[in-house]
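Per reviewer request, we include the raw input and output of the structure prediction for the construct analysed in the revised manuscript.
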Amino acid sequence: MQDIQKRIDEIEIQAAESALIADLATDYEARIYNGRLARQLREVAADLRKQAQITGNAPSFAGTVGPSSDGRAR
């Protein structure tokens, strides 16, 4: 369970980083590429979370979206 949740968290962090790069990029292609990558990574994380819940490998609250206690995105 912890391995799956850890991987979901890593993917969500990668998605947030890609979204930030897309927002800050001055190159049009970099904005588009990183925006799409962020969207795809969020979908993968959501799919993994759903599968983990179905198989009983994660609690129903796992992978809550939103800022963590220190204000950073999860």
